[in-house]
Amino acid sequence: MRPNINYLIAAGFVALIFLTIIYVTAILPASTFQPEATRAANVYVEGSPQFKGREIYRREGCFYCHTQFSRYQDREMGELVKAGDYVNETPHVLGTERTGPDLSNIGGKYPDAFHWTHHMNPRVVKPGSIMPAFSYLNDQEMSYLVAYLQEVGKRRKPPAWVAAPQEYRDRYHLVAESVDVNSSAAANAGRGIYMQNCAQCHGIQGRGNGPVSISMQKKPANFTRPFYRSYDDATWFWRVAEGVPGTRMPRWYKTLGDESMAYVAAYLKTLPQDAETPVANMDDIDRADKMDMNYWQIEAAKNSLGQNDPFQAYAPTTFKAAVGGAH
Amino acid sequence: MAWLNRLTAEVFSNEPFSASRNFLVSAIFWLVIGVTLGTLAGALMVWPDLITGIGNLSFGRLRPAHVNMVTLGWLSMGYVGCYFYILPVLVRRKGIWNERFANITMVAWNLVVGIGIFCITNGFTEAREYAELGWCFDILVLAALLALGVNGYMTVLTGEEKKWYVSIWYILGSLFWFPLVYVIGNRVFVSFEGLNDSIANWFYGHNILGMWFTVGGVGILYYLLPRFTGAPLYSHTLSMIGFWTIGMFYAPTGTHHILQSPVPEWLKAIAVISSVFLLVPVLTVLTNFFMTMRHKWYLAADHIPLRFVISAGIAYLLTCIQGPFQATRSINWYLHFSNWVVGHAHLALLATFSFIVFAATYYIIPKVTGKKIYSKKLAVLHFWLTLIGWMLMLISLTIAGLIQAAGWHFSIAMDQWAFEQEPYMLVRFLSGVMITLGQVFFLFNIYKTVFSKDAEPAPHSPTGIDFV
What we know:
Helices cover 45% and strands 0% of the residues of chain A. Chain A is built from 15 helices and no strands.
């Protein structure tokens, strides 16, 4: 067969384009995309427990259920990651599925003992969890794994847990020129708006237990949680304006003007932010955010168990000692 | 030891078409194991404490074992089995270039799949999705791929027929692209740091689907369609446009798997645009499929392999509507990370490409062994169990995925929606059981055909309608 020269040229040309595409999209980024390490980048010294823990994380396939990058829309998963956070993540463990929560900010979220218990049997601390029990790991491996988890994102501690986007900061500063949000007059005005618009859900005292809340799956926010100490004025303003998608919390900017929302913000920040409602009955549990072991849950567990550290109570004796040692 | 001698003779045989048969027979074996592992992993999503204390059977190890088993063990070997029948037939050659060489490759491939995946369940894994096999297996896989490539190319070059039917293009294309993609995607050969590693990983993860399973599957489809219907392919021009555009548009799409991670924006933009452009090759395939099938749909009543092809075509339509639209930023923003995507993956690899290989197996096995398929009933059962199985799986995973996506997207605490998924996960498990059962029937049926001595000889049937 004599190959047709025109045809060969065309084929060669197409092959060239094809190889160029592959080069540009798979190989080239490795030389042009070299983000600088950020302060938040995890550090794994070779041979350290964190390093070995990461190997176990990869070996056990944790990343098939857990991602390690938070996105713009992930409001409750901590600060947004940046490219420079990943300089030490080789091979990567980004993950593509969230059967369980994102872990990019897991470091420091729970005490070590929680992780030990949770890995031994997730159902002990999170009823209904479908995470596998990693009870087949030995104590040594478990301590490496926990050391790794505590490293992930621990340097990414945000100044505030939630921060208003710049757009809202700007908008807020514009209103703040005419409303003195630190004055009691503003707070009082806000109180009026609050009682008319918000109290039916958020309750007269802002505890999230207004009469309408009874019928709700996702309960209104309890503004007296200590968590809200981290909100600055602009954040309050933003949260009121944008509402909470997926819940009955409306986007108030559609109803209230910027000034009214600033008044409400002025009022909300005056609420006492230290009174976590103690768990007195099952209804209160229903209302609580069960994902995090928060203050009152730990307190409640302490009370019912008469112990200082509730996790120790669950932890089998085999690794109680190890946990003790790790502290 | 007579049986051992016979076995060695069969396995290392130089008979024409023996490689095709051996590849298909081993593929079906891995298929059954692969779907069983998948079903087990599905069961763990419903009853997480079903198996405890055994690391080898924990979800994080079953899942990669399942994925590798069905991609490398079943589908890849099945493809090669089909190639080694289709290529020589299309170039009028008696058997491929070197059957014994191909059979040795077959043995090596089986060892890689068996030992490699056993190692994965024992924790010897590279832990990069789709590229989990350890480095030593990667080298073997590459060697095997090159060996298969040489065999495929030599078969075509030494054939009598010099006018190449489109399937040859597709098949040779896939045999060229897969080794290339494999080299870039596995860290033994090319290793990058940090996020660049994820880019390379997903270049591989998507292109094993795009440049290997899609290209090869469409090639086989283009061979089977005219055979089964007795009608010529609707348009060769369209099929060639499809071939070149697959090559152009598939290569850069990988980044759509990490569209919301902090990788460079320009890369994401290219990935999204080319993902949408995939509609071009997809529409050529679908146009060809539907136009060739025109006036022939009634054949599916009696033609069992054709039924598989038809459902594959329709599943391909569904997959390829889903694919480009999932890759766009606004949809990906919502759906990513959820079980929806798992449903999509099964739609592509099970409902489309596996069905093509099922059809091809029912046609090729009688051709290469000269025996009629053992039981039509089992084949029909296989069809319905697998078809209803994947439909249930797709529906349940899609709904579960929507619940999950809503949960993550609106930052609703996981406890409030995790339980809502359970019924769908149960349905998913049941669909897995159905599919597994179907594949057991398939295995039994084909093994009965291949290994029994007194099987009915295959009747003369140009469209293959009387083979099953």
